[in-house]
Specification:
Blueprint lengths: L1 H9 L6 H35 L4 H30 L1
Length: 86
């Protein structure tokens, strides 16, 4: 309890180890959504290609566009992780 009072008196904020840990948890939670999105996009594209092989080229292009948009969210989270961690 005394250590908590000392930290409060010193005005320790979210810097150092605590801030880095929270930033890592935040990025981990932020990467869940894009991971699920990529899985859904790829799974549905493979399913559609299996049903109609003649449109596989168009579906593959749309699949990569969808994956790129979903991965952009993960990259934004990665940048925020470094900004919050510093």
């Amino acid at each position: 309890m005394d250590a908590l009072i000392i930290l409060a008196q010193e005005g320790v904020g979210l810097t150092g180890n605590i801030g880095n840990g929270l930033a890592a948890i935040g990025y981990g939670l932020g990467a869940i959504g894009p991971g699920i999105g990529v899985g859904i996009v790829a799974g549905n594209a493979v399913q559609a290609m299996a049903r109609q092989p003649e449109v596989a080229g168009m579906l593959r292009t749309n699949m990569f566009i969808g994956m790129a948009l979903s991965e952009a969210l993960a990259l934004i989270g990665f940048v925020v992780f470094f900004l919050a961690g510093s």
